[in-house]
Specification:
The complex is a heterodimer.
Chain A (H helix, E strand, L loop, with lengths): L10 E2 L2 E2 L3 E3 L1 H17 L15 H12 L9 H12 L5 H19 L5 H21 L7 H33 L1 E4 L2
Antiparallel strand pairs in A: 1-2, 3-4
Helix pairs in contact in A: 1-2, 1-3, 1-6, 2-5, 2-6, 3-4, 4-5, 5-6
Chain B lengths: L12 H30 L5 H35 L2 H36 L10 E8 L7 E4 L12 E3 L4 E8 L4 E5 L6 E6 L5 E6 L5 E5 L12 E4 L11 E9 L2 E6 L8 E4 L5 H9 L11 H9 L29
Antiparallel strand pairs in B: 1-2, 1-12, 2-5, 3-4, 3-12, 4-5, 6-7, 6-9, 7-8, 8-11, 9-10, 10-11
Classes of the chains: A mainly alpha, B alpha+beta.
Chain lengths: 185, 337
């Protein structure tokens, strides 16, 4: 009996190539679930002074959109935004509106300027996230004062800086999503 | 990287239609969002039941993180306590001796207070908290300052009930789910609380500014009597909060009042108590007094208002009984550190 020298010789990053296939459930659900988890996580933090966390759900959505264009349907912003609105403390409907608009805008820009790289992705996602951040504060139902904007600035900074990390996370989630998990035959 | 060629519709009618449908659905989604947003800006509690179900689902996870947060805080403060232990020990001993003296004095005052109240025929009910629970979360991404409480309708929590910690006021219950409730924190820019100075009868409103401090605005303008270091406590006006619970310490003076720092910071509290509304009939009368102007049927409601209630903000009630509160919890001196 001959031992194979490298047990991974017949596999690629998504796992063994023989006799295995992806799990359709996992391939379909991971993006949605990870974005919803991003909406949930900031709730667990007690922020009594100022908005502390960036809108993780939105950032995850943008990262999935940038890393895997075309994976999420164009209308994904509405249901995911509705879920986010349940927890975010914003008036219900603000994320439905803003996330849909963000996705539509990115889609329109992408059809005009199809060539993209990481830096351009970062710029686009950062700009979209910043605009949504500003609009969300305006629509939050709070009286917008200069003080409120000033204390929310760190949140904006974090929003922009967090994108590369989340994009890497989404890339590894994508590998997990497409891993060959099911045995056939 | 160019987008994959499968995403270009080219001349395929089917592909073109599916792109068009995508835009159409997304546009409808955005319009629906706009409609929902306008509705919920006009009626903020329109989606309260939905949010209640959602926050019920998250509350258990929040309980776990709240317990972890408390543990972490006590660990950190334990470590911090080792530095400066000696000098702190001496200072604390001195402070305790003073406190003993004050305590004896307080006993005397309390006895006198009881005697005077008995003379007047007043009896203060001890306020029992409806429930004691943890703050399990907050809206950390939004410009609004809400917190989630780990107890809800099943425990008797109802909208409007004040939430206090052992240091002072945290906020007020806004919406309830079955096992969770949403609390409007004092720092939210829509929160207004009638307060008075702990010493003396300066009446004011404490408004959240949205950036973690309270703006204290005097009711009677003129010479500003506030000084940095003054403790503001609830005045009991409005009927929601019992009088005499610590709210804020003045740190800065402004022409119309001052800027106050919170006494009870929600992020630093473990358990909070939900108390019943101090004077439910006053709250009901104040809430009802808007409707009879246009709708006639409840003619009895406005008639009650002057008789039974300490009327709204510039209420006279705080002044006669500044020290009479039974409140055991909020030690005003504790807020100074």
């Amino acid at each position: 009996m001959m031992e194979r020298l490298n047990p991974n010789a017949r596999s690629d990053p998504y796992g063994s190539r023989i006799n295995r296939t992806q799990s359709p459930l996992r391939a379909g659900s991971v993006p949605w679930l990870s974005i919803m988890l991003g909406s949930l996580l900031p709730v667990l933090l007690i922020a009594d002074v100022m908005p502390l966390m960036p809108q993780l759900g939105l950032l995850m959505l943008l990262a999935w959109r940038m890393v895997r264009p075309g994976l999420l349907p164009l209308w994904a912003g509405a249901p995911l935004g509705a879920f986010d609105d349940l927890f975010s403390g914003q008036p219900f409907g603000s994320a439905v509106l803003l996330w849909s608009l963000a996705l539509i805008a990115i889609e329109l820009i992408e059809t005009r300027f199809p060539w993209r790289g990481f830096w351009q992705d970062w710029f686009t996602a950062g700009l979209a996230a910043l605009l949504v951040w500003l609009a969300a504060i305006m629509l939050s139902g709070a009286t917008v004062t200069p003080d409120l904007l000033v204390v929310a600035l760190p949140q904006a900074l974090l929003t922009v800086l967090l994108y590369p990390i989340l994009a890497r996370m989404v890339a590894s989630l994508d590998q997990f999503r497409l891993a060959r998990a099911r045995r056939i035959g | 990287m160019a987008p994959p060629s499968a995403r270009r519709s080219g001349f395929s009618k089917k592909a073109q239609f599916s792109v068009f449908t995508g835009y159409l659905l997304a546009g409808i989604g955005a319009l629906m969002g706009l409609g929902l947003l306008l509705l919920s800006l006009r009626q903020p509690d329109a989606f309260a039941p939905l949010r209640g179900v959602a926050s019920d689902a998250v509350a258990p996870a929040g309980q776990a993180t709240a317990a972890a947060r408390n543990g972490q805080q006590s660990l950190l403060s334990g470590i911090a306590g080792y530095f400066r232990a000696g000098s702190q020990n001496a200072a604390l001993r001195e402070e305790m001796e003073l406190a003993r003296i004050r305590l004896a004095e307080t006993d005397a005052i309390r006895a006198e207070n009881l005697r005077l109240k008995a003379l007047l025929g007043l009896n203060d009910k001890d306020i029992k908290p409806v429930v004691v629970a943890r703050l399990v979360g907050s809206t950390a991404t939004s410009g609004r300052r809400f917190a989630y409480l780990g107890a809800g309708r099943l425990s008797g929590v109802d909208a409007g009930m004040p939430v206090v910690s052992d240091r002072g006021v945290i906020g007020r219950v806004l919406e309830t789910g079955r096992n969770s409730a949403r609390v409007l924190l004092l720092t939210d820019s829509e929160s207004v609380l009638p307060v008075r100075r702990a010493k003396g009868d300066v009446v004011a409103f404490a408004e959240g500014r949205g950036d973690g401090v309270l703006r204290v605005r005097l009711v009677n303008l003129g010479i500003n009597p506030l000084k940095p270091g003054d403790l503001m406590v609830t005045s009991g006006a409005g009927g929601y909060y019992r009088p005499g619970v610590a709210v804020a310490i003045i740190t800065k003076i402004t022409p119309d009042g001052g800027i106050g720092r919170l006494v009870a910071e929600p992020s630093a509290t473990g358990f909070v108590a939900v108390e019943p509304i101090y004077q439910p009939e006053a709250v009901a009368a104040l809430a009802g007094s808007r409707t009879p102007l246009d709708a006639g049927p409840e003619a009895t409601a406005p008639a009650k208002t002057p008789a039974t209630t300490p009327t709204p903000p510039p209420a006279p009630s705080p002044s006669p009984e500044p020290a009479s509160t039974p409140a055991p919890a909020p030690a005003p001196s504790g807020g100074r550190e």
